[in-house]
Write a structure and sequence with these properties.
heterodimer; A: mainly alpha; 2 strands; B: mainly alpha
């Protein structure tokens, strides 16, 4: 009996030890962001201080600097505008496309759906050269509107695939009943399918927004004017003056931009996984 | 009777009649998405291919055809050999590390314990947060002077201050650092994929195996592994595609340095094509990603098809 309890204690301890290891591994960089952004500069740049907590009282200095002396609020606004416009474009094109591929086009729709989804896998680093020429031709070089035009190239494939799964899981009888009752095919889509797929639409909105916030390569390629940058690019590349990194400000900016994305992701994670694995799990 | 029936539809409703045909409305519905993707993914892709066989630069925008000359020059360049092997090391290293971390993380999270939801939410963070921002945090953690990692190593007595490694400034360590950061970014994704696969296995299958005398390892490798293989493959496809073509981690952390030690295909294409303006060579470098991407896509298609049978 005694030996059994000892081995159980050892087992439990190692289990929670492993959980703690994963927690530290995953979350420490964010803890580091948090604590850096509230530390005073003398505290940050003193190697004899213990870096894991505050040696001087915490300060809001970096946040104040970020909002008053940098373009941070502009970047925030740019990202909101880009996210909203891309979401609108994505919904208008992906919703009917997904509905059509799930309901109206039969087996060829399935193949076409896979084809559209595969374009999600075409990497930005393969397309950025020709696309930067396209952007120039459109007169959008160095403007955030170039991202509004380009981002749907990956949000439309992704969201079409996500919504296809959603429409397939919906019983077709509801729309069929509406059609029997005299509704047109188009009317059935507008009046029945869309309201019923609101949870799917919400998922698409959230993920389009987070995908636009996470994107870095196209933004880096097309935009060099500071006041046109989205938040991710601005924080990562524009808070460096010459060789000096403003770590307090950079971490504060990264923290503010990360929190909403992290929350959104956690809330919609299961849908996201179901979306990309396309029901490979049954 | 027939005449009356035919007289009824008016002009407006003939239009409606066409819209009410499933195939017609279906095509109209799907057209905008297809057009968008064709115009801004398909056409640019063909343009990239043409760039790679032309002499196009931003200073000389003639589309002179030069055949495989660009590829030949690139292949003969020893710097490119390093870039190519870096890309494979970077992808293989970070995916292996990420998968191992993911597998064990998933096993931990399978067991119910108090606070599991919170732990899962926190463990997802590296994958959820925009990678550019997380990379900057890592860059700060690897700082040559104020690295918290070095501080800890010194405090624990493993090294002295003058032995402190310059993580991003020496060749081997820089590669290790970008691999670790990329693995760190992907392991939560691997955990989630493993969890989705394992929880989808019907419990009675496992129970039946246990009753028939299958032990832990046997259940693990002969039942669980084959059953989660499809979803694992799809996860790995994503991991490989996004790692093999990555630019942001290397760009932000090392700028390909020191002396090209961490330069990868995406980064080299960016430097040549955008920064130096040599579009044709940049496009040719990027196109070296294509064979790997094609293999990956074929694997993916096989698995998608298999699930439909």
């Amino acid at each position: 009996m005694q030996r059994l309890t000892v081995s159980k204690v050892v087992k439990e301890t190692s289990f929670y030890g492993a959980v703690a290891f994963y927690l530290v591994l995953a979350a420490f960089p964010f803890y580091w962001m948090l604590i850096t952004s509230f530390k005073t500069n003398p505290d940050l740049y003193n190697v004899s201080n213990v870096p894991f907590w505050f040696n001087d009282p915490p300060t809001l200095e970096h946040f104040r600097y970020l909002f008053e002396k940098t373009l941070f609020t502009t970047w925030l606004l740019n990202s909101l505008i880009i996210g909203t416009c891309v979401t609108a474009i994505t919904l208008v094109t992906a919703l009917p496309a997904a509905y059509s591929l799930a309901r109206m086009t039969g087996r060829s729709g399935e193949a076409l759906g896979i084809g559209i989804f595969l374009t999600y896998l075409v990497p930005p680093t393969l397309l950025f050269l020709p696309l930067s020429r396209v952007v120039t031709q459109l007169g959008l070089q160095n403007s955030m509107w170039s991202l509004v035009v380009i981002y749907p190239t990956f949000t439309i494939p992704f969201c079409t695939w996500l919504l296809m799964g959603f429409f397939k899981a919906m019983p077709p009888e509801i729309e069929e009943a509406a059609i029997v009752d005299g509704c047109s095919l188009f009317g059935a889509f507008i009046k029945m399918a869309i309201p019923l797929s609101l949870p799917g639409i919400l998922t698409v909105v959230i993920f389009t927004f987070t995908l636009t916030l996470q994107e870095f390569v196209y933004a880096l390629t097309f935009i060099s004017a500071s006041d046109q940058k989205p938040i991710t690019l601005g924080v990562a590349t524009d808070l460096i003056r010459g060789d000096v990194f403003y770590w307090g400000e950079i971490m504060a900016g990264a923290l503010i931009a990360s929190v909403p994305v992290a929350i959104a992701y956690n809330l919609f994670l299961d849908r996201f996984i179901a979306g990309i694995t396309g029901g490979a799990v049954k | 009777m027939v005449a009356i029936a035919e007289a009824v539809p008016k002009r407006a409703s003939r239009f409606r009649f066409i819209l009410d045909r499933r195939d017609v409305l279906g095509s109209i519905f799907v057209a905008p998405a297809i057009l968008y993707v064709l115009l801004l993914v398909g056409v640019p892709f063909l343009m990239a291919v043409y760039y790679s066989v032309s002499a196009y630069t931003i200073y000389d925008p003639s589309w002179r055809f030069v055949g495989l000359e660009n590829f030949k020059q690139i292949i003969e360049d020893p710097v490119f050999h390093q870039t190519l092997s870096n890309t494979f090391i970077f992808t293989f290293g970070s995916q292996t590390l990420g998968l191992i971390l993911g597998k064990f993380g998933a096993l931990l999270l399978l067991r119910p314990f108090p606070g599991r939801k919170l732990v899962r939410a926190l463990v997802i963070l590296p994958w959820a947060v925009p990678i550019a921002l997380a990379t900057v945090a890592w860059q700060w953690m690897f700082d040559s002077l104020y690295s918290v990692i070095n501080w800890t190593l010194i405090a624990l007595g493993f090294i002295t201050r003058d032995q402190a490694p310059n993580w991003l400034g020496s060749q081997g360590l820089a590669m290790l650092s970008v691999i670790v950061v990329n693995a760190w970014r992907f392991f939560p994704f691997a955990i989630v994929i493993f969890l989705a696969g394992i929880t989808a296995i019907p419990q009675d299958v496992l129970d039946a195996a246990t009753v028939d005398g299958a032990g832990f390892w046997r259940r693990n490798y002969q039942i669980i592994l084959p059953m989660i293989l499809p979803i694992m493959t799809i996860g790995l496809v994503f991991g490989i595609v996004f790692t093999f073509t990555d630019l942001s981690i290397v760009f932000l952390m090392t700028m390909g340095g020191p002396v090209g030690a961490t330069s990868v295909l995406g980064f080299a294409g960016f430097q040549t094509g955008i920064v130096s303006g040599d579009v044709s060579h940049g496009a040719a470098i990027s196109l070296f990603m294509l064979p790997v991407l094609l293999v990956v896509v074929v694997v993916m298609l096989r698995f998608i098809r298999r699930r439909e049978i």
